[in-house]
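User: I'll paste a sequence; please echo it back and then give the predicted structure.

Assistant: Echoing your sequence first, then the prediction.
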Amino acid sequence: MELVTYIIAAVLAFFGLMFVVGMEGEIIRLIIGLVLMAGAGVMVYLTKMRPRKQETTIVQKIDLSGDVALEQMRCRSCNGALSKDAIEVRAGAIFINCPYCGTSYQIEEAPKW
């Protein structure tokens, strides 16, 4: 979108310059040329000053308390080995989605005490 704005501003500035150079003593051509060049300048200024889109990165870290052995996680239903891709965080809770049997359940943490 910025590129289109810069192209339009360049065209306006070019026509403004043409009106100023070819005014031949007529004030109206000078006024039109200055207005076109001012419009081009305003377009470039507003494009530069427009706030940029910032990408929001969401990082979710899981703090597992209690006895959870991550390297030996197995599905409760089919006893299939689970990888890190099977773990999902939804609404602040940790869910397991088994790729083998399709079972989905929440991890129940043992208390620390």
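The mean pLDDT is 85. Residues 70-106 form one domain.
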